[in-house]
Structure formats: structure tokens, C-alpha cells
Design goal:
The complex is a heterodimer of chains A (364) and B (329). Chain A is of the alpha+beta class and 364 residues long. Chain A is 26% helix and 34% strand. In chain A, the strands form four sheets. A six-stranded mixed β-sheet of chain A has the order 6-7-8-3-9-10, sandwiched between helices. Chain A has a five-stranded antiparallel β-sheet with strand order 13-12-11-14-20. In chain A, strands 15-19-16-17-18 form a five-stranded antiparallel β-sheet, with no helix packed on it. In chain A, a hairpin with a 2-residue loop joins β1 and β2 (16-26). The mean pLDDT of chain A is 90. A two-stranded antiparallel ribbon of chain B has the order 1-2. Chain B is mainly α and 329 residues long. In chain B, α1 (22-53) crosses α15 (293-313) and α12 packs across α16. The chains are: A alpha+beta (364), B mainly alpha (329). The A-B interface holds A 50-52, 71-73, 75, 77-79, 81, 83, 85, 87-89, 98-99, 102-103, 132, 146, 150 and B 219, 221-222, 224-232, 235, 240, 243-244, 329.
């Protein structure tokens, strides 16, 4: 097993950065998810770790060994591709045995290890078939088997569930997570699906426009987004972000709403803005407490039934003002056009600098 | 017992495809007949050539042409042997001899005696060597070059590819004289080596372009997976790319082979005897007294066979190959 260190790793195509210089240390046995919209550099980062893409500058260390310029085959890592990349002219068994044969394993050893990994992934009945004849889920299991069979130092997975349908994706997600727990293998996983990232990652690296936006646990990136991009990108819907004018402990929000800032945050705002200034208030839909009265008022624009809860679309300023999302209990019913009062949970409110878009730190 | 409700009328419209309507069956029959007719028309020249090869000299030039005739191996004998004309007295002498084989007898019936083998087998062998080796070279070199163009970031790749193609933008005959002078100067005129080099170079542009199309169709993830799995790029190429590009290789091989096999102008100008290939020699089997149609037909027939064998051997790949990689399994 292995630790992976990226030191000031960058990738340029011509003058354009695909990945701006980034530092990242992945601990032994950790499951790290690279998350971001398409074109943000997450796949390029993964390919640089694998050696399929050369770095423009910086260093990559695997278990402390500098592998920056090592050939992919010398890195002892396995790569799972989005479209599986199973060799169509080989049988499933030959596909799985392929990496072992590269290592010059003896025939008996290959037989044994392929059988082991096939049992682990419950694909014994497929071994004689060609991959082209199989379903997406089975193809993915075979791709995983091919990666697992070598017992590599680390696994790199590039959107391995992207090509599967929704239901299968959920099953395979659980399987991959379970495999990770059993094998305890260092894994770097690329996805653009934030739900997948939240569900699977020990840590999430949020990337956008070739820049790392935040590195943190799923709870961190969800509750304490480092900047507006992360706040918007994580969660569905993303964090509610309202621009307001701060003055003397009160933020004036759209629709004549006046939000009294919790005390711990008041000090932070005062330190940053002085007496008055512009600030962005952020809160998750579930941070809005509806029904118990409160200082903020809004008009119900729409209510989406989600089964376990109801997602309200609230307009702060009359019928067509700025929208916020709020999560309400499924027992309560709201009529469209109804005026509701709500409050924000003081521990779940975040504040962002209006200029830099970076989150403010609480001052206790 | 409850009465079963009648099936909903909409369910009665069968969507089964194993039952062909009579109309469609008639159309299929018509189609088959048309295809058969076209195939027959296409086969007429080959069939006529085959018939002519077995005709005697008067039958070959008979007007109206004879479809039914007495087959003879006269054409093959005159193709494969060199003969001399006998005087009437010599014919008498020869007729008395008992050591004559069937070929001698055929020659004798035309008043000739066989003096030795002709150079046709030698020229067919030249054709086989030159076309075979040059095809192997052009496909092998083309494959490596096409792979590089397909996978690596080559500066000016587009210009280079155009440059490679531009060697095909003039009729080959135009350059035969300069090539002849050069070949004579460096001493590879009328050699196998010279012809192999020429055909390889000439086919290379075609082979690079065709193979690049096929290789572009193979996702590079396959090689990347192999490289991460512990193989070098060359190993990945041999184990992963090569088996998947068999279709393209087969198609390219056949096209290159047919070109090198059929090439006439260069062969006529750049070979004399040692390396002379079959195409320029077949028409030279004209015979002493008038054109030996049967011999020419027999020579052409023998000339067809190698290409037919190769094409048939590769037909499994060709059927998919002629769609130029548009369809992947």
C-alpha cells in the first residue's frame, strides 16, 4: 500500500493550464475523490499520477519514491477507465490475467489469483466469455478485477461509474466502497458527481478551472465550503447565497429582510468589514427553520415533494424576487403564494467576502 | 369458471420478424436474381479467359466465337515451353519416336519441338517475390508510421501526412524515366531489390493513410490500460493494438498486393530479364506465326491465381475492412 504525494504538480497545454500547481498528500489506505465539473483538470491530475500524462513541472512521490518520470508500468498502480477499456479480443479470464502475465507470474499462480479475484467480485461464471457480450455492470466488475488482481500500491479510477445507468451506479458504488474497506487500498477516484464524491470519499478535492478549490472531508466541503464555487457546486440544490449589506450586527437582505448576525460571526464580520460593508450570506436548505416564526419572511413560489421531505422554493421579494431553497418537513403543507416566516440555524450559516468570494472564519 | 376476455385488438398486430410477408419474399427473390445476373456479367471476362486458355488456335480466333469446343492444353504448352519449328522431314522423324511425352505430342501436332522451359514460371516467381516482399514492407512500415501519426503529438503532422499523400498526385508513368536513369546509375536496374524499393515506396503513402484511419478507431485507453498494467508501449502495441487492427491490416495488404502485382509501367521500363515480372511478359508471349491467344489467356489465368488465394484467405477481415473502419465490433 502506498502514500501518494503531489508537490507543485502542474500541467500546461501550450500556454493554458490544465492543472495549476497543486500540492496534495494522499495517506496510505485513504479514499480521495477528485471532484469538479468537466474540464476542471481532475482527470489530467489522475493521469499524471498514473504516468499516462507527463507533468509540466513538479514532483510525484509514491511511497516517498520519486516517480515523476517513471513509465506507467513501473509505478505499481492500477487504473480503472470510464469505458472500462477491456481488451475486446481477449476473454474475461485473459483480461484479468493480463497484468499478472506482465509480471511474469507462473501459470499456476495466475490461475489461483484470477480465481480468487473472480470469487471476490462474483464473476466466476463469466470467465470464458468475451467482454463485448456483457452488461455494463459486469464489464465494470471485470475492470475492477483486472485492477485488483495485481494487488497494486494504489488504485486510480476515472469516473468508473459514469457509463452505467443510475440504478447500477448505486449498486456498484456500494461494491467499490466495500472493496475499499476490505482491501484498504489507497484509492484516487475522479468524478463529476458530487453525490458519489460525498458518499465514497474519505476526503474530497474540489477542483474548478484547473485550480484546487478545497481539500477536506465530505462534511467539511458540505458545511464549510472554502469559497462560493464549492458552496454552489456541492449539494443539490447548492448552498443558498444571498448578497446583503452589513451594518451594526444586521445584514439587510432582499425583500426588506433584516438578518441579525449570530454573535460569533459578528466579530468576524466586524474584523473584516469594519462598521459596514457588503457580504454574502450562505446557508444550506436544511439550515432554514420554517414554521417556528423567525426574523425572515418569504413567499412560497413552488413546493417540490421529495418523499422524505419537501423542498420549498421561496421568493424573498414578493412573487418573483430572489429565490432560496428551504427544506421543510413532509407533514407540513404550503400553498403557493403563502407568506412564511423562517429563521437560520446559527451553526449552519456561512459568510463569504463579496469581493474575494472566500469564506470568512468564525471568531470565537 | 370465469370467461377469458377476448384479447385486446391492438395485441393482434404481430411484430414478429421471423414471418416474412409474401410481398417481401417475392422482393427478396427478385433481388437475389438481380444480384446473380450482375455477378454473372462481372464474371464473363474471367470465364471467357478461362475458356480461351483451353482452346486450340483455330478455336480461339473462330468467328462467331465458340462456346463449345474441344479442350486442349495447347495454350499451356506454348506458355510454359520454348519451341522450334520443324521441317516436314523432321516432323516425320519425330513421329517415329516413342520417347515423346504428352506435351511433346501437342507441340508436334503443330509442327514444333520443345527445346526447353519458357521463362514464364521464372517471371511469375519474380512477381511473387517482388509483390510479396514489397507488400510486407509497405504494410509493416505503414503500420508503424500510422501508429505514430495516430498516437503521438507530432509537430506538423497534418503537413507531413499531406506530403506523404502528395507522392500519389502524379501519374507514376511520369517518373519512370528519371527513376530508370537513377536506378541504372546506382546499379539496381533490373534487380528484385530495385522493384521492391519502388513498390514499397509507392504503396507506403496509401498504407499510412488507410491504416491511420483504422488505428484512430481503436481507443487509446486500451494501450493505456496495458501500459498501466505493466507493459511497455511496444508490448502494448503488439498485444493489444495489433490484434485489433487485423481488419485494417488485411484490407491494406490486399490493396497493396494488388497494386504491386498488377503494376505494368514501372515493370516494363525498369526490368529486362532477371527481375522482369509477369505483367509485362504475358503480352510478349505473342508467338511466331500470329498471336497465341490461348497462351496469353493461360498466362493471365496463372497470374490471377495468387491474388485470388490471398483475397480469399483474408476475406473474413476484408468484408469488415472495406467499410474503412466505420463499423467496429
Amino acid at each position: 500500500m502506498a502514500t501518494i504525494q503531489l508537490q507543485q504538480v502542474e500541467k500546461k497545454f501550450g500556454d493554458v493550464y490544465a492543472v495549476q500547481p497543486m500540492d496534495l498528500t494522499i495517506q496510505d489506505g485513504e479514499f480521495v475523490v477528485l471532484l469538479g465539473p468537466s474540464g476542471c483538470g481532475k482527470t489530467t491530475t489522475l493521469r499524471m499520477i498514473s504516468g499516462l500524462e507527463a507533468v509540466s513541472s513538479g514532483q510525484i512521490l509514491l511511497n516517498g519514491r520519486d516517480v515523476t518520470w517513471a513509465h506507467p508500468s513501473d509505478r505499481d498502480i492500477a487504473f480503472v477507465f470510464q469505458f472500462f477499456a477491456l481488451y475486446p479480443h481477449l476473454s474475461v479470464w485473459q483480461n484479468i490475467a493480463f497484468p499478472l502475465q506482465a509480471q511474469g507470474e507462473s501459470g499456476a499462480d495466475v490461475e489461483k489469483r484470477v480465481a480468487e479475484v473472480a470469487a471476490l467480485l462474483r464473476i466466476e461464471h463469466l470467465l470464458r466469455l468475451r467482454p463485448g457480450a456483457l452488461s455494463g455492470g459486469d464489464q465494470q466488475r471485470i475492470a475492477l478485477a483486472r485492477a485488483l488482481v495485481r494487488r497494486p500500491a494504489a488504485f486510480l479510477m476515472d469516473e468508473p461509474l459514469g457509463a452505467l445507468d443510475a440504478e447500477l451506479r448505486e449498486t456498484m458504488r456500494a461494491e467499490i466502497k466495500r472493496l475499499h474497506i476490505d482491501q484498504h487500498a489507497t484509492t484516487v477516484y475522479v468524478t463529476h458527481d458530487q453525490i458519489e464524491a460525498m458518499a465514497m470519499g474519505d476526503r474530497i478535492v474540489v477542483m474548478s478551472n484547473a485550480v484546487v478549490q478545497q481539500v477536506g472531508t465530505p462534511a467539511d466541503v458540505y458545511h464549510r465550503p472554502h469559497n462560493l464555487f464549492v458552496a454552489r457546486f456541492i449539494g443539490s440544490p447548492g448552498m443558498n447565497l444571498l448578497s446583503g449589506d452589513y451594518a451594526d450586527g444586521i445584514i439587510a437582505l432582499p425583500g426588506g429582510n433584516r438578518y441579525p448576525v449570530p454573535e460569533a460571526w459578528d466579530r468576524a464580520l466586524r474584523a473584516r468589514l469594519g462598521q459596514a460593508g457588503r457580504v454574502i450570506v450562505g446557508f444550506r436548505p436544511e439550515a432554514a427553520r420554517i414554521g417556528g416564526g423567525g426574523t425572515l419572511t418569504a413567499t412560497v413560489y413552488a413546493a417540490d415533494m421529495h418523499g422524505g421531505y419537501t423542498m420549498l422554493h421561496l421568493s424573498l421579494d414578493g412573487e418573483d424576487g430572489e429565490m432560496v431553497h428551504a427544506r421543510a418537513s413532509r407533514q407540513e403543507h404550503f400553498k403557493i403564494g403563502e407568506v412564511v416566516r423562517f429563521d437560520l440555524h446559527p451553526d449552519m450559516v456561512r459568510f463569504f467576502d463579496a469581493q474575494t468570494e472566500v469564506a470568512l472564519e468564525e471568531v470565537r | 369458471m370465469a370467461v377469458q376476455p377476448a384479447p385486446h385488438p391492438a395485441v393482434n398486430y404481430s411484430t414478429r420478424v421471423d414471418e416474412i410477408s409474401p410481398r417481401a419474399r417475392t422482393l427478396n427473390g427478385v433481388r437475389a436474381v438481380i444480384v446473380l445476373l450482375i455477378a454473372l456479367v462481372m464474371l464473363i471476362p474471367v470465364a471467357w479467359m478461362t475458356l480461351t486458355a483451353f482452346k486450340s488456335r483455330p478455336d480461339a480466333v473462330a468467328v462467331p466465337p465458340k462456346v463449345l469446343f474441344e479442350p486442349t492444353l495447347e495454350g499451356f504448352v506454348s506458355l510454359l515451353t520454348s519451341r522450334r519449328q520443324l521441317t516436314t522431314q523432321q516432323i516425320e522423324e519425330y513421329s517415329q519416336r516413342t520417347d515423346l511425352n504428352w506435351a511433346d505430342l501437342i507441340a508436334l501436332s503443330r509442327g514444333q519441338a520443345i527445346t526447353g522451359p519458357s521463362n514464364y514460371p521464372q517471371r511469375l516467381a519474380n512477381s511473387l517475390i517482388i509483390a510479396g516482399v514489397s507488400t510486407i514492407f509497405s504494410v509493416a512500415l505503414g503500420l508503424l508510421s500510422a501508429y505514430s501519426f495516430s498516437r503521438f503529438n507530432i509537430p506538423g503532422a497534418g503537413d507531413l501526412l499531406f506530403f506523404i499523400l502528395s507522392t500519389r498526385m502524379l501519374p507514376p508513368v511520369v517518373v519512370t524515366i528519371p527513376v530508370f536513369l537513377m536506378y541504372r546509375a546506382i546499379g539496381i536496374y533490373d534487380t528484385h531489390l530495385g522493384m521492391i524499393i519502388l513498390y514499397t515506396v509507392f504503396n507506403l503513402s496509401f498504407s499510412v493513410w488507410l491504416l491511420k484511419g483504422f488505428l484512430d478507431e481503436i481507443p487509446r485507453e486500451y494501450e493505456e490500460a496495458a501500459m498501466v498494467d505493466g507493459y511497455t508501449r511496444l508490448q502494448a502495441f503488439v498485444k493489444i493494438v495489433l490484434p485489433q487492427s487485423l481488419t485494417g491490416i488485411a484490407a491494406t495488404t490486399v490493396f497493396c498486393l494488388i497494386f504491386a502485382w498488377n503494376e505494368y509501367a514501372f515493370a516494363l521500363m525498369l526490368t529486362a530479364d532477371r527481375a522482369r515480372t509477369a505483367p509485362p511478359s504475358i503480352p510478349s508471349v505473342l508467338g511466331t506465326g500470329g498471336i497465341e491467344w490461348a497462351a496469353i489467356a493461360a498466362g493471365s489465368l496463372g497470374f490471377l491465381i495468387p491474388v485470388v488465394i490471398v483475397t480469399f484467405a483474408l476475406r473474413k477481415y476484408l468484408l469488415r475492412g472495406v467499410t474503412f473502419g466505420a463499423i467496429r465490433q
